[in-house]
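Feature request disguised as a bug report, sorry. It would help if multi-protein outputs had a clear separator. Right now it looks like this:
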Amino acid sequence: MPIEYRATDRNDLGGPGEQKWLGLPLRPVSLYYSKTANTGRRTLIVEGLVATGTYAWDTRALPSGETYRVIVEATDHIGEVGLDVSELFTIDNAPPTFLVEANPPLSRGENVEITVRSSKPLAEAPAVTIKQQGLPAVPIEMRAAPHSQEIFKGLYQTDPSADGVAVVSVR
């Protein structure tokens, strides 16, 4: 999960009377998470980040379905601390499920349109293969339906030399 943050100090803005030695050091930012509104009860995610950036937080070890807050904390050269707290959010680490449809559902040699519906929006098309009886699995090029990150379509060209059931795999 990407965390975008930006820390500033009034002594780093280039204004009159600025005292650089009081501003932010090179790596002033620490990120924490909390399961409560009490930001004092928190767990360190990472420390020593530059003042502005994006951090890719690996949330796979956290339980799905629980609510969390992210706390961004910056400490200047003299130890003054500023922080910002996110709104509550829920982590969902469960993989998507897929519903596969074939049109036509029974083919006598004609091409078959494969539609895959994902339970969650996907950043890219799922990997789809079809294994026709007696033949090796064949990858199917899937494309997102217009304005959708959950519906993907591809065309399977059947092999007339193979008869029987075809198995569609999605991952």
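(second protein starts here, but nothing in the output says so)
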Amino acid sequence: MLGRPFTGIFVSRLAQIKALAQLDILGFITSPIVTLTAASTLVREKHAGRTMSLQLLAGFATTLPKSTGSGDKYKFVIGLVNTSGSYIVKVGNATDVIQGTVHTTSDGAAAVLGYNTAASSDTVTLNGTTTGGLTIGDWFEVTDLKSGVYAFTGVTSSSGIEATPFSATVS
């Protein structure tokens, strides 16, 4: 009936759908978690606003879309600690850079360390030990801040002789 509020089972089912899904850029219902298990190139329409769960013992590389200043966010979470290789997230061209800071908890005397990017940083590498990614739940997020720049923030855990996860491998 028109004008009658939704009640009962319909509202309950709608709450369940909302908790498990979100609308993508085209209005389709999608899962907020994307499980990545192999090398991937992210696509704005499919991955923006989503959380990528990184899950492969050998690690792999993921390439970001070209930064345009869209404000799109891409969150990465360690879903499975890699035991060989590294999880690598990098820009897709020689002009984009990643700028920001990661904080990492350490197994050494300094309990928390921070690493800033260099002006030319375009790659993030979590190797599961010294550069982070030691614990399920370690995370970082990149935001398409402006043309040519992704803003970065993250929290990881690391061991051994800790080192920056940032480098310039694309440009």
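Even a blank line would do. Unrelated, but nice: Helices lie at 9-20, 44-47.
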